[in-house]
Design a protein that fits this description.
The chain is α/β, with parallel strands linked by helices. About 40% of the residues lie in helices and about 10% in strands. The chain is globular and about 60 Å long. Its EC number is 2.6.1.-.
Length: about 400
Amino acid sequence: MSILADSLSRVKPSPTMAMTGKAAELKAAGRDIIGLSAGEPDFDTPENIRKAGQEAIETGKTRYTAVDGIPELKQAICEKLKRDNGLSYTPQQISVGTGGKQTLYNALMATINPGDEVVIPAPYWVSYPDMVLLAGGTPVIAEATLENDFKLTPEQLEAAITPKTKWFIFNSPSNPTGAGYNHDELKALTDVLLRHPHVWVMSDDMYEHLAYGDFKFCTPAEVEPALYDRTLTCNGVSKAYAMTGWRLGYAAGPVELIGGMRKIQSQSTSNPCSISQYAAIEALNGPQDYLAKHNEMFVRRRDLVVSMLNEIDGVVCPTPEGAFYVYPSIAGLIGKTTPNGTVIENDEAFATALLEEKDVAIVFGAAFGLSPNFRVSYATSDEALKEACTRIQDFCAALT
């Protein structure tokens, strides 16, 4: 009899973490690996935020805090949500966790009963379905295809909802596609949700500040205030403020839901790192001017990658509205063979062969629920991106 719980058989390890780990192993072994698999900005955490963390250490703010966040941080989050999103919350409606992933996980664990369904648009962040499964729920996948710019249509959302639906998970700009829903597109989805009052909305806004060109970010409770009482608005400081390692995420929602999430957290991790909490206050309240500077660099990198990948016969790479990912289709390459004799049967075979033969690490599309595609993170240097895309071009050109 295995020591492991049966529930573990329903989930798999994170494919993005697995690919990043494999690339790190090869690099440590001396291979010239270019990693395009990690969803992490290559910028340092801004100096004012680092100093706030250092000050927290020097002034002894290194002890346990309230389970789901210190009052000062909760107040800063309330002010941010009002300032940026026009949403009014009280500190009692805020949960702070160890990264954005924990707040999502806590919410699902606090609400899902056996038989409950969760509608998840694909392509999706790899953790959504597995967190639902761990909570005992059933993921219902609705495919948002390349033809629709990787955006779910109102008709698809309507068709996916059943009497068993508990949540709709929404992510814009998206990981892995970078697709962003404008106000009208999101309003069309919220109109559907208004007709189904038993469905709650989990909005993952982690890439809110990574929005480019004419695209304007918006979030469900902002677009449709009638959904406020059944929406959990989730965010964090990881991506916009280059604080991935600080592990600090937050969510805002109804008091009863936040209380359930607090109970889960009190019996798992307890409070987030105290130092990270004080640094996050500075991130939210301090200067925001570097966000635009970072976005200028991301736009340049995005355009570089999109241009070079679209030069490849058999590859179609749309231009995303936000985040720092592209999600090209390789439908035109399926069935071809590498010089080493590997048949590109699917996108996983493509990603594996590319890593083995050209030392470029990407993540295959099946991990995100839509194939045949792959995800590139362009949150790295221009030089690395140029070299990686050149290697991808060479790899594809050699296929027969």
